[in-house]
Every structure is written in structure tokens, then in C-alpha cells.
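Need C-alpha cells for this chain, all 124 residues.
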Amino acid sequence: MPDDNVRTVERLIDGLNAKNVGVMDEVFTDDAVMEWPQSGERIRGAEMRRAVYARIDPLPTITPRRITTAPDLVIAEAHLDYDGTGYDCIFVFELRGARIAKETAYWATPFEPPAWRAALVERM
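Here are the C-alpha cells for all 124 residues:
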């Protein structure tokens, strides 16, 4: 099942990168919940998800960095690019029957580290 779950998440990412929002209906359950803790928003169900995503312009380009799995759980670390505005993101996908039943997404804006740390760290 973890391989099927990873394929589901990869299908979502590939579809969104192709600007195909309809892929969400293929990979999410009809009663799926999306949570965005930083803005305090919850999107419940396919109808509300469609309404929200119909208004997101532009859709970001998603570049996965790492995908980690456990039974019925996929965590994707990624970079999102909204026409030059970038965010680092963690997606927590909870799956039911190889379809996404809940997505929680956390976004962070990259920032320049302080100069004093340069000798102590590696830059990625």
C-alpha cells in the first residue's frame, strides 16, 4: 500500500504541475479535508476544494525534495514556485484506499541566514 500511496501523491504533483486541477478529483476522496494551519483555514469536501482551486492563479510549480511514507501516510517536502515567488513546503497526506483523505500543508518563505553562521553551516 505505501507504493500506491506514493504514486497517488506523485500523480497529484504531476497533474498540478501540468496545471490540471481536475487531477485532484482523481486522487482525493470526495470527503477529503485540506488544512492550512498558518492561515487557519480548512477546506472540507470536493465542492469547496474545486471552488478554492478554481481561483488560485497561478498554480505553483511543485518541485519535490523528498517523499517519506508510512502506512496510510505520505509526507512530501517540496519547493513551490508561484511565478518567481518561492515557498518551502511540507505536505502531510493521510490516505484511505490509496486516495488522499486529508492534506495538511505548511509553507515557509526562504530567508537569508545571518552572516555570522557562514563558517558553521553548509549552504544547500
